[in-house]
Amino acid sequence: MTLTDNVRSALELDHVESHLHPRGSFDVADHATPTGREEVWRFTPLKRLRGLHADAGLSGRTQKLTWNDVEGASVSYVTGDDARALRGVSGWAPSDRWSARVVDEVPATVLVDVPADTEVAEPLVIDVTGTDASETTGGHLVFRFGTHSKAVVVVNHTGSASVAAVCEIVVGDGADVTVVSIQDWADDAVHLSHHQARVGRDASYKHAAISFGGDLIRMDANVTYDGPGGDAELLGLYFADEGQHIEHRLFVDHTAPRTRSHASYKGALQGKGAHTVWVGNVLIRKVAESIETYEENRNLVLTDGCRADSIPNLEIETGEIEGAGHASATGRFDDQQLFYLQSRGIPADEAKRLVVHGFFNDLIRRIGVPAIEDKLFAVVEAELEKNVTAVPA
């Protein structure tokens, strides 16, 4: 499947060179190895990527994939010409070297298929378990949701690994889809990932990126539209500890009229050297009249020695829109909240825990997958147990 003819021709006429939407290419030779001086790589500690951004091998077999059987959805490994035909199925072409290498060199694709007019009653959970962080590997996943289908897919990453992965998501017209990616890796893991979704006419797409574990996590979550009426909600939750680098980048490309997008990411940081990066990019093309978009990022700093970079961007090529905005904030505990709780007899440490849980609670509920809510609240509590008590009252 490709972008519809009318949308494609509009994009070709409407293309404007900018850092927000560079032209892509499947030819690895078209992409230089990043040096760290490029705008899109300046926050990422390249030396900790173990060569995944450059020319590290992608053939390692250090991940084990398992999944539950759910009626209405199929999961399979695709190889050979069938796998090759799925490269770029989302209408995307790689804009950097590592993702071009993944689609060029990784021999197999993990394919999730949900047929048209099918409602999957329970979440499909794919467990990705890393077994060895010393060997680099690559992965390609494709999720295809037919017209008027409804499904939830959860990808849960655990264990030790050094992996570069591309996930392409095709949301058919009128479909209602949720994709959740949980990065709960071991402390030595490195995960470089790109999620690319194409949202059909009058379809609803929700993407949730949840990052807790790993030494270095960098995820791109991108969206384009294949017709008017598409709605995308991008949610993120992350918690960085001492020495961790967690980076989330979004690019919502409004390629059709009357489309909507809302991005909301929340993160907490604690421990010396904890570093989070959030970069939100929204492009409203000339063809995208009557769209509505908003992006926001909130960061809660729990201890000294942390750094949170937050950069929202809007690029607007038409004034015929319903609304566009962004917000970003980074700060410490709200002293008034802590005073209110302590004045009612709640100990300081417990008051801090309640504030952090309240900070994340709304976003966890918005993900809308009850099966993982308890897990997420438990992970937040486990993170707080590490050193939130070190925060000055």
Structure notes:
The chain has one domain. Helices cover 18% and strands 42% of the residues. It has helices at 5-14, 80-86, 97-105, 335-342, 348-367, 370-387; strands spanning 63-67, 74-79, 108-114, 124-145, 150-171, 176-183, 190-199, 204-211, 216-225, 231-240, 245-254, 260-269, 275-284, 292-301, 307-316, 323-331. It has a 16-stranded mixed β-sheet that branches. Helix 4 (335-342) crosses helix 5 (348-367) and helix 5 (348-367) packs antiparallel against helix 6 (370-387). The longest helix has 20 residues, at 348-367. The protein is globular. The N and C termini lie far apart (56 Å). The model is unreliable at 1-16 and 388-393 (pLDDT under 50). Residues 134-359 form the SUF system FeS cluster assembly SufBD core domain. This is Fe-S cluster assembly protein SufD. Belongs to the iron-sulfur cluster assembly SufBD family.
Average predicted local confidence, pLDDT: 90
Radius of gyration: 20 Å
Class per helix and strand makeup: alpha/beta
The helix/strand series, from N terminus to C terminus, equals HEEHHEEEEEEEEEEEEEEHHH
* Uncertain ranges: 1-16, 388-393
Protein name: Fe-S cluster assembly protein SufD
Family: Belongs to the iron-sulfur cluster assembly SufBD family.
Domain SUF system FeS cluster assembly SufBD core: 134-359
